[in-house]
Amino acid sequence: MSRKIRVIVVDDSALVRSLLSEIINRQRDMECIGTANDPLVAREMIRELNPDVITLDVEMPRMDGIDFLGRLMRLRPMPVVMISTLTERGAEVTMKALELGAIDFVAKPRVGLASGLNDLAAQIVDKIRVAAVAQVRRAPVRDAAPAGGGAAHASAPAAALLGRLSTEKLICIGASTGGTEAIKEVLVQMPADSPAIVITQHKPPGFTTSFAARLNGLCQITVKEAVNGERILPGHAYIAPGGTQFHVARSGANYVAVVDDGPPVNRHKPSVEVLFKSAAAVVGRNAFGIMLTGMGNDGAAAMREMKDAGSYNYVQDEATCIVFGMPREAIAHGAADEVLPLGQIAPALITRLRGATDRLHHRI
Fold first, then answer.
1. pLDDT per residue as tens digits for the range 290-340
2. Which residues are catalytic?
């Protein structure tokens, strides 16, 4: 029998520590080897017990969870799952945690803590399992300049070079675990006249509003949550609202967003499969598909449908993925035209779009 996943729980609430320990210890493949009520106790416990994964709350005494995470990921990078209340402020803090290197997060219930956490037990242990096999990277040293500025745009073409194609083309992105930072890496490189971009990432309600607002402040394009019935415009990126299904439809010559309360697909809501399947049916050869880091196989079959309908597809390579599951499945389905490191996907797409624009100009 393979070795169990060894977990340390860090939370200032004795009730939460007890509940999480019980949930973890009920699993055959994991065990809680210790609990800590603040980061300073956790630091010594990590040194002594060398866990595979830690769960971490944000608001704790003596040292804020985010400060602790930042130090941990600089000095001793390891898989971390954030378990904290996802208020509006909490969403901002959670994005900071993901930026620092946390693998994923679970939104702690605001009321009915004991029953709420038990209801989330399957989600919690699934995310611990994913974290245990994820590729963890040392937290990057950030420059003072915003992520969307400076060298990030060095490979982007000058304004208006893509505009002639932007009303026809549609870029479709799917992601899950690790996708928050991966999506940002792609979007900050896209020029202001980019074709419209539609995005599905596996995220709960309450997260995607803040995520879109943060990206909007970093990117040359406009980034927003998708709204049912709105026209999908060039120079914009639309993110599936957490807890909904998102796909694209046509209204005359225009693409429009469809956001509804459809059932989970591949256990996900939103589901990449739903978005990509609609792109295969509605956009066809005018689509570009991008599959980024994530666990599982959501979207792989539909990405192959996109390719069969004429799309050109990019898949993130294993070396730069936090979790290679979704990209691996897309490759296995024969859906990939190119498999590239994360940082090369946007430049390759822009070069391809620029070439198509140049060909269009030569015909006119």
1. 999 999 999 999 999 999 999 999 999 999 999 999 999 999 999 999 999
2. 176, 202, 298
**pLDDT above 90: residue 110:** no
Reading the block at residue 284, the tokens are 């066809």
* DSSP H or E run through 196: strand 196-201
CB 287 within 8 A of CB 302: no
Q: What's the distance, Cα to Cα, between the start and end of the chain in Å?
A: 67
Q: Which residues contact 269 (CB under 8 A, 6 or more apart)?
A: 243, 244, 245, 262, 263
Here the tokens at position 270 are 């939103």
Nearest to 273 by CA among 237, 244, 247, 292: 247
Q: What is the spatial distance between Cα 87 and Cα 85, in angstroms, rounded to a whole number?
A: 6
Q: What pLDDT digit, counting tens, does each position of 1-36 carry?
A: 578 999 999 999 999 999 999 999 999 999 999 999
